[in-house]
Amino acid sequence: MEKPINNRAWLLVAPVFLIVAFSAILPIMTVVNYSVQDTFGNNQFFWNGLGWFQELLDPSTELGGRFFAALWRNLAFSAIILAIEVPLGILVALSMPREGWKVAATLVVMALPLLIPWNVVGTIWQVFARADIGLLGYGLNWLGIDYNYTGDTLSAWITIVVMDVWHWTSLVALLCYAGLKSIPDAYYQAARIDGASRWAIFTTIQLPKMKRVLLIAVLLRFMDSFMIYTEPFVLTGGGPGNATTFLSIDLVKLALGQFDLGKAAAMSLVYNLIVLAVCWVFYTVMTNTGSERADRGEPA
């Protein structure tokens, strides 16, 4: 006789779910309300229907052109970040010690950049990259390199990318390190018996076993880089011009700088849908990967 399942434990977490749902639904309802209305101040709103969404998704309009320009900048930044941080994080994880006192010391050092608040990271690099007092800016100019992140688009992009790599590569490395530590020694013993090369061990044992961890790392880094705001805002303010004005920065400028609440609300909803769609894609890929491994009899 099967033992009946007791679901009363869910009652203990039900209040938490209700509080989270309440705190999440109210802001979304407010944003949805603003997205279908227009205002001329004095808390007077006028029905606009889907007008803001139509204008937002039309690249020929001022709002649409602004949105798509910021979207492509976001996508380009995320692609560059993933192309650098994922391989670099794997390389760092493979280089980290596996035993002894060096393990604890290495983990502490790797975790240090992750403990620094985002606004502090932007401030650190803002001072570090200045041409007059910053070590990086002064050193590059001393070498004859024309570097000015406040006036040159390429310099601004390089600075933001390097700043993000410095800040978040540790996360990818730590996740990959955890995946490597979970690989049983029996796999390595079998590889040594077969005389497998270092590259063969990486491609046939380590990389396949890290697949799920890498998917999580890519998901986390894509989401964070796609929603980045504080670091580039503190460092460049979205400049020079609009060169580093990502969606999050443009959204804040539209809502708080210009006080166009309807346009900002429509943009934020579309922004949120893009994030949810990408999360769903990654979740589907991770689920399918787990199912394929289970079908082959491998541990998930």
From TrEMBL:
Question: Could you tell me the membrane topology recorded for this protein?
Answer: Multi-pass membrane protein
UniProt-annotated location(s): Cell membrane
**Coiled coil start-end:** none
Keyword Nucleus (UniProt): no
What SUPFAM superfamilies would the database entry show?
Answer: MetI-like
Instruction: List residues traversing the bilayer.
Output: 12-36, 75-96, 103-128, 156-180, 213-230, 264-286
State the UniProt keywords alphabetically.
Membrane, Transmembrane, Transmembrane helix, Transport
- Please indicate which superkingdom the organism of origin belongs to: Bacteria
Cross-referenced Pfam families: BPD_transp_1
The chain positions of domain ABC transmembrane type-1 read 71-282
Q: Which family does it belong to?
A: Belongs to the binding-protein-dependent transport system permease family.
Name of this protein = Glycerol transport system permease protein
Q: Which organism is it from?
A: Ancylobacter amanitiformis
